[in-house]
Inverse folding.
């Protein structure tokens, strides 16, 4: 391993599991600071003091994560059941978008493994 | 005792000395000035307001007129709020508008026990309409029209809301009018009293329509909100109204709020409760009589 070149696979420095297998949890809000209005979800982020307007899917993801930290696969299954839709590629994309957006806003984070 | 009950000489001495403390709704503001012209305008605009001699003022607003140290041939009006550094300086002829902006600033900067939104706010049939709008959107002209139609003035500048209860609090002061809206307001509301027009201010020509006596005397009567209306004057618009979604209404209200962020979660709870409690509309108009009829219809739904 010494020297200027290394031909092997770099180890994961954090020793984390791939994102798809880890669970997300809510850090920036509570039930009392979330409103689901028609097709919008309004959230007050108590860590940043900011108010965000998110999609209804993001709102359901937040409520789901508040009930129980989950990985994206579980989340998709629960969101599919809530909206009575099939767990397909479109739903996966919507849930992934919601997760990425809320991660960016500091509303959720990955649990330490 | 009302400000109009004291003699001009006593008011001059008070304003030039320890200051004159006045009730503006839940606030007590102390005004100080050494300017004789401002004294006359102030006495006229706030004649119906109660004096608060024995109470501690929430803020002290001073407008001092004196020579400019760099250009001593010019007389300048200098605004201070409390012991803050000099906030603004204008030619002495603009002492009146400077005092008005100082009163606004004192409420905006100090009153964080309330949620404040930059909005016109009037009441009829026991419910207040909140009209958040940017400067120049015709909010004050609309206020003048609604006053003429018998609405009670809560404020032309701030919707003041108790965050815990959602009650709307009156802070009646004059309606600030600018440029073309001065002549329009005089035409709409011929019985109203106006302060002298001051020209050449950063906002152009300005004048203040005195708050109606009845609105000032009922400034302790709070009420529930009835509707949120986002007004915009637009030539040839006639009258266009449309409901606004809750999320958009919240976004617009936050944009127009003065202290939403300062109130943290309390602000969020107060604002979302208001949005859930009342309908929100967008109103684009050029036809004032039709706009008044729409507001009348809205107020009838409160009754």
């Amino acid at each position: 391993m010494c020297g200027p070149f290394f031909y092997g696979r770099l180890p994961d420095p954090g020793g984390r599991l791939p994102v798809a297998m880890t669970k997300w949890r809510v850090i920036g809000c509570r039930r009392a600071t979330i409103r689901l209005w028609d097709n919008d979800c309004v959230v007050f982020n108590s860590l940043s003091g900011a108010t965000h307007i998110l999609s209804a899917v993001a709102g359901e993801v937040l409520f789901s994560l508040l009930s129980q930290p989950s990985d994206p696969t579980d989340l998709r299954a629960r969101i599919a059941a809530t909206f009575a839709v099939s767990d397909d590629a479109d739903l996966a994309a919507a849930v992934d978008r919601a997760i990425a957006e809320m991660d960016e806003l500091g509303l959720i984070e990955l649990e330490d493994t | 005792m009302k400000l109009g009950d004291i003699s001009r000489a006593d008011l001059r001495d008070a304003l030039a000395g320890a200051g004159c403390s006045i009730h503006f709704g839940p606030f007590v503001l102390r005004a100080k000035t050494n300017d004789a012209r401002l004294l006359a305008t102030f006495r006229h605009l706030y004649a119906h307001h109660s004096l608060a001699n024995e109470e501690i003022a929430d803020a002290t607003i001073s407008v001092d007129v004196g020579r400019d140290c760099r250009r001593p041939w010019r007389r300048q009006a200098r605004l201070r709020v409390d012991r803050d550094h000099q906030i603004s300086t204008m030619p002495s002829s603009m002492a009146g508008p400077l005092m008005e902006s100082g009163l606004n600033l004192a409420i905006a900067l100090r009153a964080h026990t309330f949620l404040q939104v930059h909005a016109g706010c009037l009441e009829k049939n026991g419910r207040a309409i909140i009209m958040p709008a940017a400067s120049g959107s015709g909010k004050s002209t609309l206020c003048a029209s609604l006053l003429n139609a018998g609405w009670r003035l809560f404020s032309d500048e701030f919707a003041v809301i108790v965050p815990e209860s959602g009650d709307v609090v009156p802070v009646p002061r004059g309606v600030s009018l600018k440029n073309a809206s001065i002549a329009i307001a005089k035409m709409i509301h011929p019985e109203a009293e106006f302060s002298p027009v001051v020209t050449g201010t950063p906002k152009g020509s300005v004048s203040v329509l005195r708050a109606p006596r009845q609105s000032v005397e009922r400034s302790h009567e709070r009420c529930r909100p009835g509707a949120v209306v986002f007004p915009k004057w637009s030539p040839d618009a006639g009258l266009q109204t449309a409901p606004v979604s809750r999320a958009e209404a919240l976004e617009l209200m936050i944009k127009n709020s003065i202290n939403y962020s300062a109130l943290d979660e309390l602000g969020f709870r107060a604002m979302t409760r208001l949005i859930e409690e009342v309908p929100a509309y967008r109103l684009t108009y050029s036809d004032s009589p039709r706009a008044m009829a729409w507001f009348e219809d809205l107020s009838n739904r409160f009754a």
